[in-house]
Amino acid sequence: MIAKRQKRRSTCPINASLEVVGDRWSLLIVRDLMFAGARAYKDFLSSEEGIATNILASRLVKLQESGIVTSERDPQDGRGVIYRLTAKGVELAPVLLELSRWGTRFEEGEPPGGILQAWETNPQAFLAEIRKQLLDVPRSTG
Amino acid sequence: MIAKRQKRRSTCPINASLEVVGDRWSLLIVRDLMFAGARAYKDFLSSEEGIATNILASRLVKLQESGIVTSERDPQDGRGVIYRLTAKGVELAPVLLELSRWGTRFEEGEPPGGILQAWETNPQAFLAEIRKQLLDVPRSTG
Questions:
Q1: ipTM greater than 0.90, yes or no?
Q2: Burial, B69: exposed, middle or buried (Cβ in 10 Å; 0-12, 13-18, 19+)?
């Protein structure tokens, strides 16, 4: 799907990013795809935050229109759809990791073991591993 | 002001951060305080995105309740109020910089000259400089 370009509020790239993912749900969907192995629609619904199905549906459409998420027919279940991050979506990893670091330090919560340490120790190696895990996977041909 | 603790949707620190700054305006206010020299209420209103005054007022209250922004009487104008980032607010710099980097790469816009290069070349030195600029300032005693 072609990324949809909209008229921006400004020329600031921080603003551009916030216009795409600056809400309380979109980055949680990206988080679930990146770190929690989410693939199917029901996987997102089972996350602890309890996203409503109408919000999930609208955010998945927007994330696909923005070129962050892609979907395909599930090769194991012809009626199912699976979602993946695109290369553009995977590159949101530093944003998520810095939100996690800030939240851990100043708000509350603990990320799954070792993630922040790995990020702080060697960001480039961490990103390379994330890219490999999420992008070097066989795609359905169907 | 004491940071207000609310019941979170989950124990994930990414979610905790998004509950505090996960909307399309709060991080623009932090951006203006961090990089654009904003201090007074009218400074935020003049940003290119055109924030509405009621949204600005509500976000400034929330940012203060969250311990990200502090306000004081303007020593140069007894009727005025100036806003500053707290230490907690300044530590949002990596989130903003990674949003800027992602936006520059995949959406549109250009950050002011040299910021992203400085961040990529030496993140620790960049953060130290930001902290120095924003926190080592004389405070009003009034």
A1: yes
A2: buried
